[in-house]
Amino acid sequence: MKTIYLKRTISNHCPRCGEGKVLKHPFERLEDCAVCSLKYEREQGFFLGGVPVSYFLVCSLWVLPIITIWFLNWLPLAWMLGLCLGGGIVLPIVGYRYCQALWLGLYFCFAWNEMPPREE
Ligand SMILES: [Zn+2]
């Protein structure tokens, strides 16, 4: 496991060189690295892996804390349902491209031997 690949994509940098960007802006992913030419999409449908990453982040960082707050009687039921539903719809849309970048880093973190060597 090479966590450097994940660390680089968390900060929106290419997992191989750490210099080029993965996302042009929050709603657009680049096809390859401008510095080392790493092609980001490993195979067709590769970035569908961003869906479970998005699901995990929304559930663990949004839904679960809100349900916990509701469970402690600090929030009415209607607010809890509204916040969970609203966040459950908006956050995956806003964060989907970033989750694709995280997926790229996670992929190479565990499948580090599949990282193509850099051509000079
Ligand atoms: Zn690169």
Short description:
The chain is mainly alpha-helical and 120 residues long.
Explained architecture:
This protein is mostly helical. The protein has one domain (3-114). It is built from 3 helices and 2 strands. Helix 2 packs antiparallel against helix 3. The longest helix is centred in the C-terminal third of the chain and has 34 residues, at 77-110. The mean pLDDT is 96. Bound molecules: zinc ion. Zinc ion (ZN) is lined by residues 14, 16-17, 19-20, 33, 35-36, 38.
Derived from helix and strand composition plus strand pairing, the structural class reads: mainly alpha
If you compute it from the alpha carbons, what radius of gyration comes out, rounded to the nearest whole angstrom? 17 Å
- Average pLDDT works out at 96
What is the number of domains? 1
Write out the distinct hetero groups bound to the structure: zinc ion
Number of helical stretches of at least 4 residues: 3
